[in-house]
Please model this.
Amino acid sequence: MLNLDEFYRARYVLSQVVRRTDLIYAPGINPMSEVYLKPENLQVTGSFKLRGACYKISQLTEEEKKKGVIACSAGNHAQGVALGAAKQGIKALICLPEGAPISKVEATRRLGAEICLVPGVYDDAYKRALELRDEIGDTFIHPFDDERVIAGQGTIGLELIEQLPDMDIVIVPIGGGGLASCIAFAIKTLNPKIKVYGVQATGAPSMMQSLEHHHIERLASVSTIADGIAVKEPGELTYQLCQNYLDGIVTVTEDEICAAILALTEQHKLIAEGAGAVSVAAAMFDKIPMKGKKTVCVVSGGNIDVTILSRVINRGLSKSGRIFTFCV
Model:
C-alpha cells in the first residue's frame, strides 16, 4: 500500500540525484488565472521520469542488481533507468518503440544502456520487454505501475505543497497514469481542498475512457505528437489511484499542444515535448475551471526531437493565427 512515508524516504534517497525544480510564474498562459509552471523538463535527464526509476533501482536487492535491469519506455523512462543503473554500476536493457525520437534513443545509449528497438508504439515495447525479462531473467522496472516508481515520482507532489501551499489547482499530463496518480495521492493526502486534474491527448485518451466506463480499457490505436503519453492501456495501480484521487481528466488537440509548446518557447524560453506541454495546453484553452485560481501546470518533459520542433512551431503559429499559407 502507498503511504507518504515512502514518498519522504524517496525524497531523501533522490536528494543527490534529482533537481528540486523551482516554480516559474507564467502570467501569459491564462490571464484569468495565476499560473505557475513546474519545469520538470529542466530535470537532469530532461524529464520527471528519473525520479521514479532511480528510486526503484536504489531499492533493489543485491541479487536483483546482479541480474541487471530491463525496462520499456517511450523514451523518458529509458533515460531515468539508464542513469539509475549507471549510478548503481549495473547493466540495463531498454526496449523502445522504433518511432521514439532519435534524441531520446541516443541520450539513453550515451548513459550506457543497451537499446532494443521494437516495431510499433509503447505498448509493443512493453510486451517485448516482458518477453526478454522471462528469457534472460533481468529485473523489470515498470515505467508507471509500480509502488516505488510512483513514490519516486510523488516527490514532485511534496515539492509543490512546500513551494506553493496555497495553490488551488494542479494540472498533470497522463499517459499510463504514474505521474498524475502520485501527485494526486500526495497532494490530496496533505491538503484535500486542492484540485488535481489530468490531461491526455485526444489521440490517446486511455485513462479518460477507462475512468468514464469504470474499468480499464485498451485502445485499438493511439496517434499523437505527445509520444510520451501515447499509451494504449493505463496501469492497474495507477487506474485505481486516479479513480480515487483525481478531480477529472480533460483532453487537448494536436493544434492545442503545438500552441502550448510555442507559448512555452516564446514566453519562458522553455523547450517542452508534446507530453510535457499538454498541461499548459489545458490551461491556455480553458479546459479546466481555473478563473481566479492559483494553478500549477506540471511541464513533465522537454525531450523533443529537433527534427520535428520546426514543424511543431509552424503548427503552433498557424493555430494562433500568426502564419498563413496559400497557393496560387
In short: The mean pLDDT is 93. The two ends are 64 Å apart (CA to CA).
